[in-house]
UniProtKB/TrEMBL annotation:
This is Macro domain-containing protein. It comes from the Eukaryota. The lineage of its organism: Eukaryota, Metazoa, Chordata, Craniata, Vertebrata. InterPro entries: Macro_dom-like.
């Protein structure tokens, strides 16, 4: 077997092993602390919290943005600690 094929086989075996594990079993294998997705507020939750602390009505401010704001979260911190399947870290494009 060629070295590349051996690595591919080992990768597939590891992927299958991880897919069979429960979340609790996977967490036992983490080497350091993590941030669970449920602990990161969505954009809407963040806006509600800010508006409530400012004494404003959150419904009026987010009415038209409801679908996107319920799906998107903004996170400030070490993104390598996030317990997620994928990370999109888009940089700002300046022209």
């Amino acid at each position: 077997m060629y070295p590349g094929n051996k690595r591919k086989k080992l990768w597939r075996e590891e992927k299958e092993r991880l897919l069979k594990m429960t979340l609790e079993e996977r967490r036992k294998e983490y080497l350091r602390e993590y941030v669970a997705l449920k602990d990161i507020p969505t954009w809407m939750e963040e806006m509600r919290s800010k508006n409530e602390s400012d004494g404003e009505n959150a419904k009026e401010d987010v009415q038209g943005k409801r679908s996107l704001s319920e799906k998107v979260s903004l996170y400030r911190g070490d993104i390598t600690l996030l317990e997620v399947d994928a990370i999109v870290n888009a940089g700002e494009v300046l022209r």
